[in-house]
Every structure is written in C-alpha cells, then in structure tokens.
Amino acid sequence: MKLHDLHPSPGSRTKRKRLGRGPGSGLGKTAGKGHKGLLARSGRANQAGFEGGQMPLARRLPKRGFTNTFRIEYSVVNIKTLVAYEKTMHFNPAIFKEIGLIKGRNLLVKILGTGEIDRPLVVEAHKFSDSARQKIENAGGQAKVIGRA
C-alpha cells in the first residue's frame, strides 16, 4: 500500500443536501418539506418526549413521593476511621476536611460507632450516634456536639 492508494471507504464521505437551490437540484421550491402544514413550518423540531400525539410516557406514569426541602444531610465518619489516624488525638470538621474524610461543601459531620476505640479522643462533630458517643466516653475521650454553622 502506498500513499496514492489511500482513499476513504465507499459511502463514508457524502455531500450534504443543499435544500431550496432551484428545480434542477431536485430539492428546490418546497425543499423536500411537501406543501404547507406543521411539518413545512420553520422551527419545527422533534420535541423531547413527543410520541406522535400518543399520550407520552411521562404523563402515563403516576407521580410518586416528594423531596423534603428541610432535610439535613450529614457526612458520615466511623470510629474505626478515626482510630486509624494514630498521631491525631483531637478531631473537628476542619481536620476531617483536611484529612480527606469528608468531601464537597457539606461540612456537617455525624460520627457513627462502627469499630473499636483504644485511646482517649476528643471529637467535635454536629451529631453522634448513641454507640459512638458511648465508645468515645468509655475510652476516656470526649464527644462534643457543635452547633450548625
């Protein structure tokens, strides 16, 4: 194979249709849109969800549920994750963010009780599960609840 042998595959390169360029083109006058009617009008495009006049799927299915606008979402951190950081004895949301335990803009933190704790830790968070609070205090640490910003 040489450079002069290269050519595109048959049918891969087609000329675009130039509509409304006179009767000799075969697509003059009405430009392939027929006569009058909605389909001949400008701006006519397939709308998203339009099913040819049949009742669209989005309207055939029932609506369910709702979104609670007052819901408060917490980033969750387990005790076993805190114990893994052996050098740190004091934890707060800023430290969680710095370490990478919480991501995004949500700085509200809830501590959960999964895992065992072997040393006294001071943990500041917005919320604690009962088991997490109990484990932290039994190990001689403190579980401080801080207010929402």
Give a summary of the structure in a few sentences:
This protein is α/β, with parallel strands linked by helices and 149 residues long. The chain has a domain of 71 residues: Ribosomal Protein L15, Chain: K, domain 2. It has four helices and six strands; from the N terminus they run H-E-H-E-H-E-E-E-H-E.
Task: Provide an overview of this structure.
- It contains 4 helices and 6 strands.
- With 149 residues, it is of the alpha/beta class.
- The mean pLDDT is 91.
- It has a domain at 75-145: Ribosomal Protein L15, Chain: K, domain 2.
- It has helices at residues 57-60, 79-84, 93-99, 130-138; strands at residues 75-78, 90-91, 109-112, 122-125, 127-128, 142-145.
- The N and C termini lie far apart (71 Å).
What is the architecture of the domain at 75-145 at the second tier of CATH?
Ribosomal Protein L15, Chain: K, domain 2
- How much of the sequence is in beta strands? 5-15%
Morphology call: elongated
**Tally of extended strands?**
6
CATH topology annotation of the domain at 75-145: Ribosomal Protein L15, Chain: K, domain 2
**CATH classification, class level of the domain at 75-145:** Alpha Beta
Please supply descriptive tags for the structure shown above.
149 residues, alpha/beta, Ribosomal Protein L15, Chain: K, domain 2, 3-stranded parallel sheet, 6 strands, 13% strand, elongated
